[in-house]
Amino acid sequence: MRRVRTAWLWPPLGLAALAAAMLMGVAAGAASIGPVDIAAALASRLPLSPIESPLSELQGAVLVELRLPRVVLGALVGGLLASAGAAYQGVFRNPLADPYLLGAASGAGLGATLVLAFGAQLLDAPQAVVPVAAFAGALAGVAAAYALGAMAGRGGTATLLLAGIAVSSFLSAAQNLVQMIRVEELRRIYSWMLGGLGTGGWDDVAMIAPYAAASVAVLMGCGYLLDLLALGDEKAASLGLNATGVRLVVISAASLATAAAVSVSGLIGFVGIVVPHIVRRLVGTGYRMILPVSLLSGAAFLVLVDIAARTLIAPAELPLGVVTAFLGAPFFVFILRTTRNRAG
Fold first, then answer.
1. What are the two backbone dihedrals, phi and then psi, of residue 235, each rounded to the nearest 5 degrees?
2. Count of domains for the chain
3. d(CA 196, CA 193)
4. CB of 26 within 8 A of CB of 60?
5. What's the protein's topology in the membrane (predicted)?
6. pLDDT at 220
7. Residue from 222, 231, 273 nearest 250 by CA
């Protein structure tokens, strides 16, 4: 009861944590910029603002053109992966489900690999097409998993899960074949696959913003339906819920969110497992609260991880996916242990 009474506190706390993380992300770097100067510089760019920026022209360019879009992109990617992971865990009723479950990661990897391997021969600026190819590949991977699951008959989520595994294996094999053929491009391919936000800009933010807004709106609106699904299909059906239709909508929205995130960041693991699991322990099992808090917490988490990735070995930079793996792998073991103990 105490958790229910205090549940309303978590979204404001998550929003405050995100704001603090983004401020830290914008301030961190070789050229230190204080929070007051950041606020004044941003306020000076508002229409009819009487405030003058305290930053030099170079500092202003670093703030607005490099740090700010990277932080915004990190927040978008982290929020999308965490909310998609929470949705997948609700649909499959499994705390180990993650956003890459149905072939989104392998599809995105194949799409990006094809452009990096052969794009120079066909395109003027192949690097600019990588996000589009990764986005299309992720959606194609999920669509193939759906089609294969439908061909296999009415097996519910178990059939869809097996179809996702089969599609992921096939697409990963195809990606490995391309890498073998174009071995000279391995460095660029692995650099993308390890994940990062270093090349992200306002163009990337603008590209994924519509898909992020649409997918998040659908997922946030499905919290109550996921709570009903948690009761079991028969109970949900007795309450007038079309379980199959709800699963289709939720998985489609979560897959769209995953595709949008992966297209601009590469493959960043564990965010969609770790963040929703922690949130569930804090706010309870109701998805009307888990989904929005996961969105905000995932955004704050990835912004903070990105700060670590670009400062721990500065001036060099760690791949973002490597940092999340170092943080997430031990927690994943913890989840496995607690899940096994509860089953026992």
1. -65, -40
2. 1
3. 9
4. no
5. Multi-pass membrane protein
6. 95
7. 222
Provide the 3-class DSSP secondary structure of residue 199.
coil
Residue 176 tokens read as: 């490995």
pLDDT along the chain (344 residues), means of 10: 65 94 87 81 82 83 89 96 94 85 89 85 70 90 88 73 90 91 84 82 91 95 91 82 88 92 89 91 90 96 93 85 86 70 55
Per-residue pLDDT at 119: 79
The residue whose two tokens read 């089969």 is 166
- Cα–Cα distance measured from residue 153 to residue 130, given in angstroms and rounded to the nearest whole number: 35
Q: Which amino acid is at 314?
A: A
Residues 95 and 342: beta-carbon distance below 8 Å: no
**Residue 36, burial from CB neighbour count under 10 angstroms (0-12, 13-18, 19+):** exposed
Host domain of residue 136: 2-343
- CATH classification of the domain holding 246: 1.10.3470.10
Residue 265: which of 147, 100, 108, 86 has the closest Cα? 108
For the entire predicted model, the pTM comes to 0.89
Q: Collect all residues with Cβ–Cβ distance below 8 Å to 217 and sequence separation of at least 6.
A: none
